[in-house]
TrEMBL record:
Pfam families: MarR_2. This is DNA-binding transcriptional regulator, MarR family. PROSITE patterns: HTH_MARR_2 (PS50995). Keywords: DNA-binding. It comes from the Bacteria. Residues 5-139 form the HTH marR-type domain. GO terms for biological process: response to stress. GO terms for molecular function: DNA binding; DNA-binding transcription factor activity.
Length: 147
């Protein structure tokens, strides 16, 4: 392996952490102080059509019990609600509440603000090259918290 690759893992992990920390701090500044980054990964799966606890557990790669505890916490805090599943009478569907949707909108704005320095530091060609390189490294669908 070429010597100039040895720092790449540290740089990638550091960049990912800076992105998560930047989004988290801006979401907190927007008034959502009772959530943590892992909740954002849950919101990403639940937004839109919703998800069952089992689907949430699979998405986050955690146990069904841990996903159920997270869902209960977010229901208690007013970010999620549980309702009937439209296709499975035995299942319950988790969906975002108005507060949950507002939090995801704040997270989107926070991500844009966090990425703004990248957009000004790199040329469009460099951004395209970075995106291409990351597409070769990234495993689709494997975005989940690890801390």
């Amino acid at each position: 392996m070429p010597d100039d690759l040895h720092d790449i893992p540290v740089l990638l992990l550091s960049a990912a952490r800076a992105l998560v920390d930047g989004i988290d701090s801006r979401v907190r500044e927007a008034g959502f102080t009772d959530i943590r980054p892992a909740h954002g990964f849950a919101f990403a799966r639940i937004s839109g059509a919703g998800a069952t606890v089992t689907e949430l557990a699979e998405h986050l790669e955690i146990t069904k019990q841990a996903a159920s505890q997270m869902a209960e916490e977010l229901i208690r805090k007013g970010y999620l609600k549980r309702g009937p599943h439209p296709a499975d009478a035995r299942a319950r569907l988790l969906t975002l509440t108005e507060r949950g949707n507002a939090c995801t909108e704040a997270a989107t704005a926070a991500a844009n603000a966090t990425l703004r320095p990248l957009a000004t530091a790199l040329t469009p060609g460099q951004i395209a090259a970075l995106r291409t390189a990351l597409l070769h490294l990234a495993e689709p669908g494997r975005i989940r918290p690890v801390w």
